[in-house]
Structure formats: structure tokens, C-alpha cells
Amino acid sequence: MTGFILRRVVQLVIVLAIVSVALFLLLRLLPGDPTTTILGTEATHEQREILRAELGLDQPLIVQFGQWILSVFNGDLGESWITGEPVSAVMSDRLPVTVQLGVMSLLGALLIGVPAGVLAAVRRRSTLDTALTGAGVFFLAIPNFFLGPLLVLLFALSLGWAPPSGFVNFTDDPIANLIHMVLPAVTVGSMVVAVVMRQARGAMLDSLGGDYIRTAKATGLSRGRVVMVYALRNALLPVITVTGLQVGALLSGTIVTETIFTLPGMGSLIVNSIFSRDLPVVQGAVLLIVVAVLLINLVTDLIYAWLDPRIVYDAA
Fold it and tell me: Using DSSP, how many helices (H) and how many strands (E) does the chain show?
């Protein structure tokens, strides 16, 4: 296990290095001049040149990149070009919203997807199985930017069951906070529900066809005990893996969803910062999300090995 963790840490560092270079270069390839966006079109050439020097944009790209990386290693993500606030402070105000949205979406996906997959497997080739599988295909195919406005139109504007947008802090009003987060969580978690359900169904079918299940049935155990205790316990292993892999897709879905529902999270921060050419904020936010995804994938692999002692990573 120690060797596996060391290899994954090395891979994590390599991926972070590649992402950092690609992120820095791609942001510099965006059309337009950041000084024009910050100062406005009425600014003179001299004023823009002074601002470029203050921001370090007059230096070669390799020098700019080196300065940014050194700052990151020292725990400094830089300052916002628009507000002058430290990037870490800007993200600390937005991060709890995205974390809550992600946790609610993931928990909802597991609470719905796993039971739905188990039911579809137990009732294989039935009407219920067909309906659940069809629903899974539908939510897997529909994109967030279409599902979000559709939910707003149906449940907010037509039925009035939930607010169409906005955010309330959990500490101010927990009930209002949860009500405002329901539609965004459904929007983000819909695809994860479909993936988890399909994986749970396939894993349950494999478990139900195993020899140990036939042995358990032969001992006289009830069908419910065989399914829930023996089959489901083994079927959850691949579900855990696919859930960890879906975290990246879940976080990317928050970018569009937070913009649709005007949530003050990391996703809307990235979008607004791109439009305003606030590159230090974009770099810091994207880098944080990449680190979170890589760490979650590492933890998922460790949990998988802990739950299944047959997995020996050091031998791989």
C-alpha cells in the first residue's frame, strides 16, 4: 500500500505540473487585453502600459509563469486584478457554497441511484427495470445547461415549489438555504444518479449470479437478506469507484449550474473572472478544483483497497 501511495503522489505532482502549464498558457491565449477590460476602452495607451507593468504582463511568459509557480509553492495564489483582494480570500468566501452543492448532489445521487440500481437488478427485464433504465439513459443524455432552466420553468415558475435563483446562507436560515439548493443539486446530481444506478445494476447482476449467492439461498436465508447483506455488499465496491470518478464531472457541472441559479460559488466565480479577465482568480480556482479531484480519486482507491482485502496495489 505504501508503494502505491507514493506512486500516486508522484503521478499527482506530474498531473498538477501539466495542468498548471496548460492552464497558464491557455488563459494567456484568450483574445483581448486584460488592461483594456480593467481600465475600460477610454484609457490611454500610457495608462494601459503602466498597468501592464504593475501586473507583470510586460515580462516574458516564462518569467510570469515562474513567478506564479513560486508564489503557489509559498502558499500565495496572488491577488485579484479587479478587487485587489488575495485570491485565497476570494475563494474562501465562495468555496462553502460549492462544497454544499457538491455534497448535496452526491448524497442525493447515492441515495437514489443505489436503491434504483438494486431494484432494477432484482426485477430484471420487468417493467420497473425498463422504466428505471430508460430514466437513467435520459438523465445521462440531458446536459446541465438544458436541465437547469427546464427545472426552473417547471418547479419554480409554473408550480412555485422552489425559488428560481438566489442563495441564503445556512447559518442565517437553514430551511431557506436547503430550499434554494434543491433545484441546483438536482441539476448537478442528475447525471451522477444515472451513472451510479447503471453501475449498481450491473454490479448487482454480477453478484446475484455468483456461486456464493446460490449457496446462501441453499442455506434457507430469506431473499431480502441474500440481496441486502451478501449481494449488495460486494456490489457496492465498483459503485464506490465510479462514484469517485464522477467527482470531476460533478464539479465541472457546478460551473454551469451556479451560473444558471446565480449561486455565489466557485463555478460562478470562474465564469465571472474569465469574462472580466481576472486571470489570477481563474488560475487559483481551477488549480484548487484539480487538486480536490486528484485527492478524492486517491482516497477512493484507498477506500476500495480497505473494503476489499483482495486488492493488493503493491503487487501491481
Answer: 13, 0
Does residue 52 form part of some domain?
Answer: yes
pLDDT tens digits for range 155-185: 988 888 889 888 888 888 899 999 999 999 9
Which position has the higher pLDDT, 113 or 211? Answer: 113
119 and 212 housed in the same domain: yes
* Partner residues linked to 86 by β-bridges: 79
Please name the residue ranges forming H helices in 34-86.
34-39, 45-55, 61-73
Cross-strand partners of 79: 86
Instruction: Say whether both 120 and 49 belong to one domain.
Output: no
pLDDT number for residue 316: 45
Using CA atoms, how far residue 13 sits from 6, 73, 151, in Å, is 11, 12, 40
Write out pLDDT tens, residues 260-309: 898 999 988 998 888 888 889 999 999 988 888 888 888 877 777 666 66
Q: What is the largest CA-CA distance in the chain?
A: 87
Share of the chain above pLDDT 90, in %: 15
Alpha-carbon span 266 to 31, nearest angstrom:
23
Query: Is 212 in the same domain as 301?
Result: yes
Q: Quick count: other Cβ atoms within 10 Å of Cβ 156?
A: 17
The arithmetic mean of pLDDT across residues 59-64, rounded, is 88
Give the DSSP H/E element, type plus range, for residue 217: helix 211-218
Residue 84 lies in a domain: no
Range of the domain at 180: 94-307
Would you list the DSSP string of 109-151? HHHHHHHHHHHHHHTTTSHHHHHHHHHHHHHHHS-HHHHHHHH
Residue that is written with C-alpha cell 453478484 in the block? 207
* Residue 142 pLDDT > 70: yes
Are 184 and 290 in a shared domain?
A: yes
Q: Tell me the pTM.
A: 0.82
User: Do residue 19 and residue 142 come from a single domain?
Assistant: no
